[in-house]
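If you are new to this repository, start here. Below is one unmodified record pulled from the training split, so you can see the exact layout before writing a loader.
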Amino acid sequence: MNVNRLTRSLDFHAQALTLRSERQRIIASNIANADTPGYVAREMDFSAALRAATGTQASAARLDTPRPGHMGAGGSNDPTATAMRFAAPSQTNLDGNTVDMDRERASFAENAVKYEATLRFINGSVKTTLDAMKSHTQG
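And here is the target side for that same chain:
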């Protein structure tokens, strides 16, 4: 395996890990704002964000500015901004809040599992590479 291929692979998975972490932050922000009147839940299209972060997609419209009363949103240098959108409301609330706690909990758990899988893949790749570089006498 040449060094450039190894570097590209690790860079790709490092970007995926960073995006998974950001997605977890967005989901946690939705959960934290579940009782905020007028809060519109946000979500990230992970595939689009990964394509944008790895340079395989042109920039799209950005969702950089939070609505009044929302907890922080990504800044103008945020690579996830191209994949941000408001979540489609699955229920109607009198206060205008669109957070669906069941959906958010499921998304949080799914994203946590995928974060862990990406982390394990990176660790396995590094371990395999280090093992391959060892001398046969180092055992």
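Two things worth knowing about this chain: The chain has a mean pLDDT of 81. The helical segments are 3-32, 46-53, 101-133.
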